[in-house]
Design goal:
single chain; Rossmann fold; 13 helices
Length: 412
Amino acid sequence: KKNRRCAMQSKKNQRFCAEHLKLEASEGVTDNKDNIDARVPCPLDPKHTVKQRDLKTHLQKCNARPAESPEPWYNKDINAELHLSKEGQETKNTGLDLSLNSENEPALFRKLFGVLETYNRKVPSLESKIQKHAGLDSWLSKKENKKHIVQQASLIGAMKETDLLSRKNVYVEFGCGKAELSRTVNACVIFDTVLEKKEVGADQHDLKNNLIYGFGLIDRGVNRMKMDNKIVSDCEGSQLHPQIKRSRIDIQHLDLDKFMEYMQHLSIVAISKHLCGAATDLTLKLILNSKKSRDALDGVVVAMCCRHVCDYGQFLPQSRDFLAKNGVVGAREFLVLKKIVTWAVCGKREGQEDKHESGYTYEERERLGLIARRMIDDSRVDAINSLMENNKAELFLYADKESTLENHCLRV
């Protein structure tokens, strides 16, 4: 896939490792013993393979198998559309033309180059807000690879700056993976609680009524080495007893109001670190579609990434309007914008010639990619500010390029 050599070992007298034995069939190699050990792609998830003879057993335990009974908060495609009752609100995305061909693509690129240069002249540079939290200082001293902790500390610092870091909140982490961000949030809440206890005195510091603290963990994937139990064990001796509820579900199908019925809460904070592409827009629609949860929403802190896999149809209507007002009209032009946005993070390999069909140098392409990314993220900010009148959305840089190239944070 990426022209890398596989690190897995092959058996004696076999050319391929277990995961790549399937390539033998494509090359006409059929010397397996009656093919009893031939590996085939799993029908549920072709990213992995299984021995032909074990397929029936594997399908009964594969992590990719569909749930036998959906959870109570599963509501198919509930967040595929924005459910607003405002007059004239667009809720359906029909007639999207995503076709590009060799004749019209160069012209669209030239148009978008001009659009981006114009947009760049109109908007001020993003403010850099790289922050820290003392609760993660000990973590930094133990880690050799510090970039993830540095990013998490900055996001948590951004939460604390706007009073979003508290044991009175339930944090719902979207695209949580192993829940590393939630664990570091919990560590900082513990740190602040211990500090508060020292300042006000043990006698006055009462945590008995703080039963509303916890973490809702949302991810559609199957994750190993989850941090759920570590969040609980980290709280030993701190008097904190966080609720933990994990759901393996696509954000598109999550009824947040129903999910929160299973967690005690007064206020909700939506968080995520590197929420990929369309998942960011689905999360925004989820929040807007959730009346009860939106009333309890205290804030949102999301580090975004992967604009190249955004879906024009999943964008909020106000986001699409913003893009159109600034020169990116319709799905075809948005497709070109997504191609340009990859230049912000594609990197330059050592010894690579600085030639490109666009005529731009690597540095010029990177600059255009960053402008394209800024425009997409600004469209989200504009949509939130127009739809959530009592909240103010802002965009800023939460990390430097050395820590991560995907360093835009959306805070509400």
